[in-house]
Amino acid sequence: MGLRELGQLEQDLVFGDAGAKDVINFLRTKQDATPENKLRLLMIFASVYPEKFEGDKASKLMQVAAEFQFLVFRDVYSAFISIDEGEP
């Protein structure tokens, strides 16, 4: 997955040149995008189009983001500990 393509879509979202259909298309066609990039894209979309995430939808998005952040932190922490203990 090209960083340039992702960056262009992010920029287009921020400046109003892309919308939900573009994000959905990207997520469907770019299966190799990292979870971090997918989450960042969704968070940008949510910040640009907050009306799309009113009420329960916003709560669910924040919950998913928090859980994802915990999982990433846990993995990074585990990797750091194994390096610190001299494990490969």
TrEMBL record:
SUPFAM superfamilies: Sec1/munc18-like (SM) proteins (SSF56815). It comes from the Eukaryota. This is Protein transport Sec1a.
